[in-house]
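ARCHIVE CARD
Drawer: 12
Card no.: 0347
Subject: one protein chain, sequence and derived structure
Cross-reference: see card 0346
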Amino acid sequence: MSAGGLLATPRGRALLFGCLYLSEGAPIGFVWWALPTLLRQDGVDVAQITTLTALLALPWAFKFLWAPLVDVVRGPGWDLRSWIVVAQVTMGLALAPLLVIDWAAAFDVVFVLLVLHAFAAATQDVAIDALSIETVPPTERGAINGWMQTGMLSGRALLGGVGLAMVPVLGVRGLVGLLLAVIWLSLLLLWWARPAPVKAVGGAGRWRELLRHLRDAAATRTTWIGLAIAAVGGAGFEAVGAVAGPYLVDRGASGAAIGTFFGMVSVPCMIFGALIGGRVADRTGKARATGVLLVAVLAAVVTLAVLDSVAGVGAGPRMFGLAAVYLALGGFTAASYALFMDLTDARVAATQFSAFMAMTNVCESWAAFAVGRAIPVFGYPLAFVGIALLSIMALPLLAGLAGRTNRES
């Protein structure tokens, strides 16, 4: 029996996964953008704030360690939708005490609540991605990733930069209330999403099945090629994104201009790029589209570097160059994530796709570290281009993936 309800039609799937990713992106915007600012305004020490944000990133980096539970703990009465519901309810319950407690005075309590929230949110992400891989046809995965990125980025903007701007009107508690509403409202849509029934298999049997399927995935060349692409392909935009704010400060942009750029320019560019890039991936092939968009990222980074090197160029043209990078970034993200879905065995979707996402985190980490060390030596333009050139190592790997899936060696 196939999936039903919202999962049965392209529009229904776009609505469902876009809204689920909205509920996923909203707390990310709040926790990583708004919350540090609000805590600092309450007098919390910067070292405490950065320690908190650093630890909250760990569940996302290591979610692949417990992703096998999402693959295994399944049955007629408990499916991927159940995982999502429990995770989202937990996400909200962990944040609800922020409505009443004093954040600065009870910082240790806030710390524990946010760590609990982060584990639930990372688990929600694993289950949503697995549900997408199981139910979305391969010919539609690019478009779905475009809508997912639209939901994610809209949630981040709404509860991040826009949320901070609304604090004088809503108050801090009102902002938390809005966040809870965004997290929980998408639960209503899950009532109209019916995944395909899961056959009843004993616990030990499911673990044996998981290990067998993981061995099969590990034995395929495409799995390792996909991991390598994830580890290097995004280096160009990760390097620029890691220092975009400091770069604009060093080039004389005002705080208001920088805020406007990130709130009103970069996010819309990424959304537009994701929607277009996803559709292109569906029509031309995921590997081909990912390669073309990787070249587009490199071209945008080079354009930014050239503009930055021209004497007398102000902040405006430099922001134009940055906008081009974010536009290409949106397209590359949608296309590459759709590619990783194609390379994932649906029988171990939670585990294998989480491994691909973990490697994108590795890419973000090494690119940010490298560009931070290169800028003092070579300056921004050469540092940006140098890291972006490293990302083209993914091109021959992508060429070898054209037309292949995880089932092919």
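Annotation on reverse: The chain has a mean pLDDT of 90. The longest helix spans residues 10-41.
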